[in-house]
Amino acid sequence: MRARNNLKTNRMAKKKENGKKERKGKFMKRILCLCMATVFCFFASSAFAEVTLPLTQEPVTMTMLSCNWASYSITESEAFKRLCDETNVYWEVTEVPSTDWNEKLNLAFVSGNLPDVIIGSMSTSQIYKYNSTGALIDMKPLIEQYAPNIRAKMEGSPEFAQVITLPNGQIASLASTSMADCTSTDECPNDFLYINQVWLDQLGLAVPTNVDELYNALIAFRDNDMNGNGDPSDEIPFTARLGVDTLRQASVMFGTVLGTTTDYNLFLNHEQVVYVPLTDEYKNYVSFLHKLYDENLMDREYFTLSAQQIAAKAENEDLLYGCFFAAGNNLVGQDRAEQYVPVMPFETNGEYYSTGRAYAVPGMFSITSACQNPELAIQWADLFYDQEYGKITWMGTDGVSYQYNDDGTWDWLYPDGCETVMDVRGHHTLLFSCGWNWVCPDDWFMINDISEAPMNKHRAMIAENYPGACRVALPTLYYSENDLKEMAILSADLNAYESEMFAKFVVGEADIETQWDEFTKTLNTIGAQKLVSIVQNAYNNR
Q: Pick from 183, 221, 224: which is nearest to 42 by CA?
């Protein structure tokens, strides 16, 4: 029997009746290509993969260590219960809050009291380390023999295979692909600029196509009492949604990716690792932010505000924000979101830049040396690389937690007293209990949601019109334990100094013209180039 049993066959038939052709129309195909990666190459393969259900005739119980990212328990999830019943594989689960995860995970390895499988978020260093000790087994032979969906994924997407393959050639963890899953030609943009179209129309301005036009629009927003409340000074022309890390990522406007400190402030630019704060693009961006700050074109309280406080300002009765950098246009509240349109990527040195999501994130599933039935464990994990089981993970059960509409879109249902989408996803999917997002199904992008649907449309618009623009700071790389220790020491000092100076340059406490040489000299003295060398070597040897 195929992975689609009779129950799933019925669901597929129902889906066709509710508008499958519409969902597979031209626009949806583009959404799928842009945000789902290997698309037909992988999913066509997985659709015909022979997987017998249940996985075992006699019930089997195994043990699992799972990272809990929210307040919902995996064992209480209807999706988890359904998966156990359909596969005949049941689990004794030890759930660990994400705040205690690394401590409990390392304790399990040190004590040797290991579960059969680990579901959660293991860093590349943990994967590398515990595979080298033999605590995490090599799943590559198991995948070749027992996991047709994973095997098809690897064959259809060499980059996915590279992400999960250690430098020694072994595979010690599986990866999340979610919406960031993409090939070398298909992309899923993440954060980008949104600007108030209503204000632009009132001023007779077009959506900016470069930094100079953006600057002129921000001046117009500042000087013309755009919210009409009689106070010409309360408008905030520019902000970024989630605080300083998001503000840093807006550096794509100047042709670079200044990521978070977890990226070590490094950027892989055409196969070459660079330390971004030493580049001209970084200096140009910081200079631009200083000009915005100095001329009251951005929130002068920005560096003292939390993400919640930024959002609170956005909810002000008198609309304040003219332009913001974020992952969606609903920062200002859903009732005003439609006023804001995405700004297309700007050109820098003949190229376009937009923030993208990591292609794939390893560390989602591992089998330990304590597992007595690794063949069954890998077969169970393999189901999550099938679209139908991806729907269970992301959406729950058709007719219970969601339903299709005649036009092929779908809406959440609210069963069992669930009052919010959070409740539905917490009780009927797996995402809010343990963060399993291994494969985001194509139907996810047909969600009839006032927040998600416009965001998907905007992502598709950018990716379709600007192929190659999406950038991530660094790809997934594996480092030796010694390299990681040295990187931790170097980055701690570099990050502290750079973060301090970034804010000082923007607000004018440090002068860009007179103190920049000293700034770059200090970065090099601390060890910026040594950090670049370590990461470049890891990239070359991947």
A: 183
Q: How far is 68 from 344, CA to CA, in rounded Å?
A: 37
Q: What is the mean pLDDT of residues 498-520?
A: 96
Candidates 251, 286, 284, 287; CA nearest to 269 is 251
Phi-psi region of 255 (alpha: psi -120 to 50; beta: other; left: phi over 0): left
Q: Which long-range contacts (CB under 8 A, 24 or more apart) does 300-308 make?
A: 300/507, 302/239, 302/240, 302/244, 302/247, 303/244, 303/503, 303/506, 303/507, 305/243, 306/243, 307/241, 307/242, 307/243
Average pLDDT over residues 390-400: 92
What local confidence, expressed as pLDDT, does residue 29 receive?
A: 35
Task: Please list the residues that pair with 93 across neighbouring strands.
Answer: 64
* Cβ pair 399, 405 in contact under 8 A: no
Among 369, 460, 466, 401, residue whose Cα is nearest residue 179? 460
Residue 259: which region, alpha, beta or left (left: phi > 0; alpha: psi -120 to 50)?
beta
H-only helix segments in 415-451: 421-428, 431-434
| pLDDT at site 41 | 33
Specify the pairing of strand 351-352 against strand 60-68.
unpaired
Coil, helix or strand at residue 437: coil
Q: What are phi and psi of 64, to 5 degrees?
A: -140, 135
As a whole number of angstroms, the distance between CA 164 and CA 160 comes to 7
Characterize the bridge pairing of strands 236-240 and 89-97: unpaired
Which residues touch 12 (CB under 8 Å, ≥6 apart)? 4, 388
Residue found under tokens 């794509």: 252
Asked if pLDDT for residue 261 goes beyond 80, the answer is no
Asked if the bond preceding 54 is cis, omega within 30° of 0, the reply is yes
> Average pLDDT of 154-171?
88
CB neighbours (10 Å) of residue 53?
16
Of 12-16, 100-104, 356-360, 386-390, where does mean pLDDT reach its minimum?
12-16
For residue 459, give both structure tokens: 């992502």
Work out whether strand 117-119 and strand 60-68 pair parallel, antiparallel, or are unpaired. parallel
Residue 248: half-sphere exposure toward Cβ, Cα within 13 Å = 26
Higher pLDDT, 469 or 537: 537
Of the ranges 20-29, 123-132, 468-477, 508-517, which is most confident?
Answer: 508-517
Report d(CA 457, CA 247) in Å as an integer: 23
Cβ neighbours of residue 22 closer than 8 Å, sequence gap 6 or more? 28, 407, 408
pLDDT digits (tens, 9 = 90+) for 199-244: 999 999 999 999 999 999 999 999 999 999 998 888 999 998 877 8
Q: What pLDDT, on a 0 to 100 scale, did the predictor assign at position 251?
A: 92
Identify the residue with better confidence: 501 or 178: 501
pLDDT reading at 19 higher than 70 = no
CB distance 369 to 135 below 8 Å: yes
At a CB cut-off of 8 Å and minimum separation 6, what does 173 contact?
A: 122, 127, 136, 164, 362, 363, 364, 365, 366
